[in-house]
Amino acid sequence: MASAPAQQPTLTVEQTRVVLSEVIQAFSAPENIARMEEARESACNDMGKMLQLVLPVATQIQQEVIKAYGFNNEGEGVLKFARLVKMYETQDPEIAAMSVKLKSLLLPPLSTPPIGGAIPSS
User: Fold this and answer.
1) What is the residue-wise DSSP string for 19-88?
2) Cα gap 52→41, rounded to integer Å
3) What's 10's DSSP letter?
4) Are the beta carbons of 65 and 19 closer than 8 angstroms?
5) Nearest to 62 by CA among 23, 100, 89, 36
6) DSSP assignment, residue 13?
7) What angle do CA 83, 89, 92 make, to 5 degrees?
8) Beta carbons of 69 and 11 less than 8 angstroms apart
9) What is the pTM of this model?
10) Residue 121 gets which letter from DSSP?
């Protein structure tokens, strides 16, 4: 007999706020700050290297928190949690704000060219 697929955790808006807050706090832990800084330095602002080096570290940090709430300890658990957060973003301004904060922790700041920074013609 085939085993039933693993049950996907379902969290309420309140529970999602708590988990999201814990995930954000995890990125503030000194050891995780060091892990993220090391990965960012190794990536040297190269977006391809960011995906190879920074994203896995960020995923591991999130997994360490969300596994306590029934999400699997693989990348799939982080994706399911991200989908849950996305669903609640439109319903809850606090979750929307925390989601923006989490994204700012994960994504490097984008450098924009200065206004009027056109290349001078010769």
Assistant:
1) HHHHHHHHHHSHHHHHHHHHHHHHHTT-HHHIIIIIHHHHHHHHHHHHGGGT--SSHHHHHHHHHHHHHH
2) 13
3) -
4) yes
5) 23
6) H
7) 135
8) yes
9) 0.78
10) P
Sign of the CA dihedral running 45, 81, 84, 92: negative
Predicted confidence band of residue 107 (pLDDT cuts 50, 70, 90): confident
Give the tokens for residue 14: 């309140």
pLDDT tens-digit profile of 57-102?
Answer: 999 999 999 999 999 877 789 999 999 999 999 999 999 999 999 9
Calculate the alpha carbon distances from 98 to 23, 31, 59, 101, 115 in Å. 10, 21, 17, 5, 30
DSSP per residue over 92-116, as a string?
A: -HHHHHHHHHHHHHHSPPPP-PPTT
* Contact of 43 with 28, CB cutoff 8 Å: no
Q: pLDDT category, 32, cuts 50, 70, 90?
A: very high
Location of structure tokens 């206004």: 115
